[in-house]
Recover the amino acids of this structure.
């Protein structure tokens, strides 16, 4: 089952899980709040920056 989660790069909503239920997750999120994906990975945070 897929669930909404926060993108670590942009802070918008994305999904986590098996991938079979992405459409169900997207249906609960406004289009302007959905993360469209990123070509570059998020920069690694130092241990003291993680929250």
């Amino acid at each position: 089952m897929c669930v909404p989660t926060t993108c670590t790069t942009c802070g918008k909503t994305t999904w986590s899980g098996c991938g079979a239920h992405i459409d169900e997750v997207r249906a609960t999120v406004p289009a302007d709040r959905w993360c469209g994906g990123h070509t570059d990975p998020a920069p690694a945070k130092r241990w003291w920056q993680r929250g």
